[in-house]
Design brief:
The chain has about 425 residues and is of the alpha/beta class. Helix content is about 45%, strand content about 15%.
Length: about 425
């Protein structure tokens, strides 16, 4: 008889409410990323007890956002690179905390040493103690040096920094700085269930500070858990970045239109389209688990659409031959505009990956364009800030298709939102098919 997975318990005698336990868990998760694992998968494998989860998440995300900084310090504090990935990760987490919690330095060092005693048989315990204490002695000197090093200063891979310098010669520093921030939390009110003003009043009653943004958007002053949001599980509201909320309105759907959301998971844009108009919508995703998330999100919001697990690049496996009036092509991309939400990308992405995503995007555009009705429109969008995936991709598509032309968005040929304190980075281009 099978049983449900048991919550993870420490393999050591570290108390679960101790900083040492949190540091140990954070190091384990980050080491998994160093070995090539996706951060969501790595965190799920930890089976974190609820009480320690917020602390571990803060340490993991903060350390990964500070890409390159820990390694910069370690290169100057150790005679040779450390081969044990978990101890390396522990040192990076501890260094991250020392920089941000200087008032608690003694506790950080003490608890990191306790954590090190449970890694690799404890053979690096003395090393961890020596490295961290040496950092504290040389902290001012090391931080000044880090601020002169591109990677340690901007906390992104060098290839990423250079790509943004080329693309945004006047604003590249701002884009990089935004990628290191804690992301904002925005909501989208389900206008089929209630009014924006009414929901703002409910937030105020719950003592959640917020301000309206557009017709259905709300920006929270501080992130909160979804179970604290009034009516979340009743479908009154969704969590969706304000930049992502632009998509549904830019596509300009109306009653009775036949709409395709070609890469739909987790379903935020799918739901928004259905909240705006009574449309016949088909939502696709190539992975069954991700398609199931679309179904779950629609059910929570009280919305209906046809959801299929299918690769949008192979219409023969899912298309019934009837053209679509609107297509949303929210294509896979480098996620460079949302890296603060997925900081493992700084470790896992390579420059060649951008070309790989661009190739996939081209395949999707070529597969979907024949499915669009004459006079219909396709919204091409990414959460990337790299031109190869955005403007260059669209320009190349237009040269290949004489029956396509671009429709201006907000009096611009294309809309490139760069990440800032209020929203993530997104790209939008609206393409219309000319009548024969």
């Amino acid at each position: 008889m099978s049983s449900s997975p048991r919550p993870r318990r420490s393999v050591s005698d570290l108390p679960e409410d101790s900083l040492a336990y949190a540091l140990r868990c954070a190091a384990e998760g980050i080491a998994a990323v160093f070995r090539g694992r996706n951060l969501d998968v790595a965190l799920a494998a930890l089976h974190l007890p609820p009480a320690v989860r917020p602390t571990v998440m803060d340490l993991v995300y903060g350390t990964l956002r500070a890409y390159g900084r820990g390694d910069f310090f370690l290169a100057r504090l150790m005679p040779k690179p450390l081969q044990d990935q978990e101890t390396r990760a522990l040192l990076q987490v501890a260094l991250y905390r020392l920089e941000r919690r200087g008032d608690d330095a003694h506790t950080t060092v003490d608890q990191a040493v306790h954590a090190a005693a449970r890694i690799a048989g404890g053979r690096f315990r003395a090393l961890v103690n020596a490295v961290l204490r040496n950092f504290l002695r040389r902290q001012e000197e090391l931080q000044a040096a880090a601020d002169t090093d591109d990677v340690a200063c901007w906390q992104h891979p060098l290839w990423w920094i250079e790509a943004l310098r080329r693309a945004y010669p006047d604003t590249w520093q701002t884009v990089l700085a935004a990628g290191n921030l804690h992301p904002p939390m925005s909501l989208r009110v389900n206008l089929r269930r209630g009014r924006l003003d009414d929901y703002l009043a409910r937030l105020a009653a719950a003592e959640i500070a917020a301000r309206p943004w557009g017709e259905a958007g709300i920006l929270l002053e501080k992130p909160v858990a979804v179970d604290k949001l009034p009516g979340f599980f009743d479908g009154l509201v969704s969590v969706q970045d304000w930049g992502a909320q632009r998509a549904a309105r830019l596509l300009d759907v109306g009653p009775g239109l036949r709409v395709l959301d070609a890469c739909a998971a987790p379903g935020g844009k799918t739901a928004h389209l259905l909240e705006l108009a009574e449309v016949a919508l088909l939502a696709l995703d190539a992975e069954p688990k991700r398609a199931a998330r679309v179904v779950d999100n629609l059910a929570r919001l009280g919305l209906q659409a046809e959801v299929k697990t299918a690769d949008c690049r192979v219409p023969a496996t899912w298309w019934d031959g009837r053209p679509f009036d609107r297509i949303l092509a929210d294509v896979p991309c480098s996620a460079s505009g949302v890296v603060r939400r997925h900081p493992d990308a700084k470790v896992l992405r390579r420059a060649a990956d951008v070309k790989g995503f661009a190739a996939t995007q081209k395949e999707i555009l070529e597969a979907l364009w024949p499915l669009l009705a004459p006079g219909g429109t396709m919204l091409y969008c990414t959460c990337s800030v790299f031109p190869e995936e955005n403007g260059q991709q669209v320009a190349a598509f237009l040269t290949r298709h004489a029956d396509a032309h671009r429709i201006a968005l907000e009096q611009q040929p294309e809309l490139q939102l760069l990440p800032n304190a209020d929203h993530d980075g997104f790209y939008y281009a609206l393409l219309q098919k000319r009548a024969p």
